[in-house]
Amino acid sequence: MDTGIRLALTLGQIGAVMVAVLLTVALLTLLERKVLGWMQDRMGPMEVGPYGILQPVADGLKLFFKEDIIPAGANKFMFSLAPVLSLVPALIGFAVIPFGPDWTVDVGGVNFKPFVITDINIGILYILAFASIGAYGIILGGWSSNSKYSLLGGLRSAAQLISYELNVGLSIVGVLLLSSSLSLVTITNAQGGGFWNWYFFAWGSFPQAIAFVVFIISSVAETNRTPFDLPEAESELVAGFFTEYSGMRFAFFFLAEYGNMILVSCVATVLFFGGWHAPFEFLQGPESLHWLTGMFWFTFKVYGFLFLFFWLRATLPRLRYDQLMRFGWKVLLPIALGNIVVTAIVEYIFP
Amino acid sequence: MNLKEWIKTLTFYEILLGMKATMSHLLHYKPITLQYPHEKRALPSNYRGMLALLRYDDGTEKCVGCDLCEAACPSRVIRVVSSEVPGEPTKRYSKEYYMDMTRCLFCGLCVKACPVDALGMTQEYEWAVYDKRQLHLNKQQLLAIGDRNFPVREKRLEFQHPNVAYFNVGFKDIPQKEA
Ligand code: SF4
Ligand code: SF4
Predict the structure, then answer these.
(1) Can you give the pLDDT at residue B141?
(2) Which range of residues forms the domain containing residue B111?
(3) Which of A23-37, A113-127, A202-216 shows the highest mean pLDDT?
(4) What mean pLDDT comes out for the span A197-222?
(5) Which of A172, A338, B118, B119 is the most exposed place for a label (fewest CB within 10 A)?
(6) Chain B residues inside the 8 Å CB shell of A35
(7) B44 lies in some domain
């Protein structure tokens, strides 16, 4: 009985989160083009619906009805597996993100946390591990397409992901030292009470602002977005690793890219900007309304980061490959390592 | 690098400058694009659009079938079949006149070459078709284009080249072959 209730509740939660994420992806495809357009003195999509707001629907229908082509000489099994391999890790990470206050509700004798699907105590490690699996989807997709452009895109992304995964992992160690926990729920709870407690500012300890910059740059690189979009590099590699993909398989890669964007925005919000906590205590409202204000602030911060992604894309040109590698290994890595050392020392002296 | 440049590099000064520029475009959003099928831009009066054959005020065709436009055309768009006006052995006209608009590059040389100003360039440009054979125009079609674009056919002497009678004078301003 208990197991049944737990299963039903968890499935409901997963469904709700999936719907929210996929709706956000649909919204992002429109928002990105609109924001890019506005920044470049254009209008963005305007034809479908008033001011183009129905464009995601039209795009979705188009992708759904497109012919699904498997190129001759492609490894069929790997070719079909790759989109799934890149989409699943992008979506699975949301399981440990706390979207609201850390409440425990008792439903029919089952302890149920409404705002986090599962609070495992190695949450952040779990997200990083699955992000690495996502790289397999990209590499396999590039390799199995039997096309040199795809292969080059896949190889580029392999090198890039390995270099920048490391920086993502190292840049968050400072936060983990401060909170002495790997669970995202615990990390969020430690940041309540006002914006000076967020680990970006970390009042009374070593601020993680530098780590945050390293984290944001590395996650832009990890999600293959401009200025680090060498794996797809429209102007050189056609579309990089998904050159040969069409229809729903292409849509899977697309969803994975945007899903990853949302995921790293959520992680940045949780680790550095206090998750669902408002910048001031009074903005959080009364205790009973924390779920509403919490969700609001969480969404607000996540969309702020997503806007930052668009903003960077509208501003910066693509890096050259050697610049990318040099920046990752010679600049970001020492900074991240230095941040760990300094944070550890400060934390040891002023615990 | 001196200290100032180091600080600039460390604080991503240049990138922030660029981001400020894009942000200012977002905040002072003024699109420069036109929503083409719904809005159309104003064309300059010397716009070189679709070609047309013209008529005199009384409705007779201007073209005298001299073939000079065919000779002037760099892309071999035009084909003229010249013949006598029936019953008037001193007069000639173009019995057939074809233009293959798929090849035309809208240079306007044919218009300049014509000694009687029988060709004109209109402001039409929406000539996309599904079958490219529809762009192979005959005389009737070209005259119809002229009729709908130039309903008034008064002679405007101020636009007339003083030397139109001497055919090649019109070519003076384009590069000539070395003698
Ligand atoms: S505009 Fe130029 S290319 Fe076109 S028909 Fe006249 S001479 Fe030929
Ligand atoms: S140059 Fe003028 S008159 Fe001569 S054939 Fe061409 S259109 Fe007719």
Answers:
(1) 92
(2) 51-159
(3) A23-37
(4) 83
(5) A338
(6) 26
(7) no
The angle that helices A247-272 and A55-65 make with each other, rounded to 10 degrees, is: 130
Give how many domains chain B has, as a whole number: 1
> Could you tell me the pLDDT band of residue B169, with boundaries at 50, 70 and 90?
very low
* pTM listed for this prediction: 0.79
The dihedral sign for the CA sequence B81, B87, B89, B92: negative
Domain total in chain A: 1
Residue B71 has a pLDDT of 92
Most trustworthy range by pLDDT among A105-119, A313-327, B137-151:
B137-151
Give the residue whose CA is nearest to atom 4 of ligand 1. B104
Q: Is position B91 within any domain?
A: yes
Structural contact between residues A281 and A6, judged by C-beta atoms closer than 8 angstroms: no
pLDDT, tens digit (0-9, with 9 covering 90-100), for A115-147: 878 888 888 888 888 888 888 888 888 888 888
Q: How many angstroms separate the CA atoms of A85 and A139, rounded?
A: 10
Structure tokens of B63? 């073209």
Q: Which among B15, B25, B33 has CB closest to A39? A: B25
**Ligand 1 mean position to B75 CA, how many Å?**
7
Per the structure block, which two tokens stand in for A95? 């399981």
Chain segment B130-158, per-residue pLDDT in tens: 998 999 999 999 999 988 888 776 655 55
d(CA A311, CA A309): 5
* Element holding A111 (H helix, E strand): strand A110-112
Ligand 1 probe mutation, B76, B107, B111, B127, most atoms within 8 A of CB: B107
**What is the domain-level CATH number for residue B84?**
3.30.70.3270
Q: What is the largest CA-CA distance in chain A?
A: 63
Smallest CA separation from ligand 2 atom 6, residue: B69
Residue B137 Cβ contacting ligand 1 at under 6 Å: no
Q: At residue A229, what are phi and psi to the nearest 5 degrees?
A: -90, 40
